[in-house]
Structures are given as structure tokens and as C-alpha cells.
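dumping this here so i dont lose it
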């Protein structure tokens, strides 16, 4: 099991904590700060998915006029694995 704590940039959330199992699937995930309901939804949807698939689906998503978003920051965090 791997665990990564990622400090976000350019979003309302401040940090993401991700646990990846030995098969490369997201075992657990949590955001610190941000839009509570939306982030709970993202966490629920990606739990059990392969980290690589989550990264590919979420990379490049923006939030309003911001060049990034919480989903994009999650993808960036997964790129560090």
C-alpha cells in the first residue's frame, strides 16, 4: 500500500491524501478544504478505480476561469506515483 499527501495549487482544496493498493487501485482518498459535496462525490466515484485511469480521465479539467481544478489536481497527484 502506498500513501501520498499532495499539496494542491490554484484550487479551494488545500491537500489531497491518497492510498493506492498493491494493484494500483485507489483504496482511499480524501480532500482537505474545497467544495465538500463535490469532493465527496469524486472520492466515491474513483474509489476502487485504477489510478492510471483516474489520472487519464481527470487531467486537464478546469474550474471556471481557473487553469486547474480539484479533479485536475488529483490527476497531478497521481502522476507523482
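and the seq i came up w/
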Amino acid at each position: 500500500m502506498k500513501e501520498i499527501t499532495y499539496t494542491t495549487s490554484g484550487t479551494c482544496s488545500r491537500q489531497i491524501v491518497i492510498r493506492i493498493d498493491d494493484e494500483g487501485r485507489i483504496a482511499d482518498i480524501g480532500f482537505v478544504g474545497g467544495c465538500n459535496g463535490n469532493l465527496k462525490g469524486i472520492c466515491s466515484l474513483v474509489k476502487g478505480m485504477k489510478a492510471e485511469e483516474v489520472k487519464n480521465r481527470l487531467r486537464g479539467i478546469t474550474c471556471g476561469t481557473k487553469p486547474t481544478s480539484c479533479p485536475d489536481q488529483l490527476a497531478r497527484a497521481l502522476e507523482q506515483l
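The mean pLDDT is 97.
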